[in-house]
Task: inverse folding
């Protein structure tokens, strides 16, 4: 029989130090599980204000406010950028013409309006980086380059993001404050011969569109491909993956895009 090696006080102390170091290395704030698209954060209001103050103690605002009348307004609160008056929209996208101005308007909380995808973006804050709080209630920026321009809030990084899409051609009429995801609901619905739908991507990425029955079983895969940013169409013929017509009943069309995951109910009749 092997002799048992006694566990020394030093070994206990080493384990305790490792556990303590892991706890201290946790992020200062986390997102609540199963949060809504505009996540509720566990950081207190006081902690958010402190993070906000610390940021501006080491940063100078960037960006000259535009004096041009804005063509689109984005409301800013806890914890959202809202351009379409729908807080369930995961990522709002404002579509404007080249040379147009967008205004961010404070509603509540302490935020930044910072150009870029996140703090890891090497170009973050180069175009604009400003506070938005009770003392700085609006910021307007004129966009003089075409393309897609992301922005975020440093204080609520990972939760508060948005996009501005600038059309280069003045002959094209942009859709104001269009949202990522479904832009046309599945129709006709109910249907006996399939449905069509439309959706928009803010950035290029993987698109998956699938149909599930009420038991959660996938019966058809409609799209599984990398697609470009912009508007796209999709359709379901009303058939299963094996080619058989789906039985009459309720099904769910699930659409997954970068930053978006939603389902729509579809009723099949005979």
Result:
């Amino acid at each position: 029989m092997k002799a048992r090696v006694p566990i020394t006080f030093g070994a206990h102390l080493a384990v305790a130090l490792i556990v303590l170091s892991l706890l201290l290395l946790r992020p200062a704030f986390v997102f609540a599980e199963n949060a809504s698209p505009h996540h509720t954060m566990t950081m207190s209001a006081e902690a958010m204000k402190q993070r906000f103050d610390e940021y501006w103690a080491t940063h100078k605002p960037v960006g000259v406010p535009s004096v041009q009348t804005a063509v689109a307004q984005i409301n800013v609160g806890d914890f959202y950028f809202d351009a379409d008056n729908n807080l369930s929209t995961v990522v709002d996208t404002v579509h404007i013409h080249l040379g147009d101005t967008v205004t961010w308007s404070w509603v509540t909380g302490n935020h930044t309006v910072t150009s870029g995808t996140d703090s890891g973006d090497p170009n973050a804050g180069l175009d604009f980086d400003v506070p938005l709080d009770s003392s700085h209630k609006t910021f307007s920026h004129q966009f003089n380059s075409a393309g897609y321009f992301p922005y975020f809030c440093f204080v609520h990084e990972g939760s508060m993001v948005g996009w501005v899409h600038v059309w280069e051609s003045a002959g094209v009429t942009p859709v104001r404050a269009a949202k990522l995801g479904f832009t046309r609901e599945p129709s006709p619905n109910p249907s006996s011969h399939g449905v069509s739908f439309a959706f928009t991507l803010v950035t290029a990425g993987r698109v998956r569109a699938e149909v599930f029955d009420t038991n959660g079983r996938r019966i058809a895969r409609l799209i599984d491909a990398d697609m470009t940013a912009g508007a796209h169409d999709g359709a379901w013929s009303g058939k299963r993956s094996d080619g058989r017509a789906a039985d009459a009943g309720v099904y769910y069309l699930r659409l997954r895009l970068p930053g978006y995951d939603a389902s729509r109910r579809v009723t099949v009749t005979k």
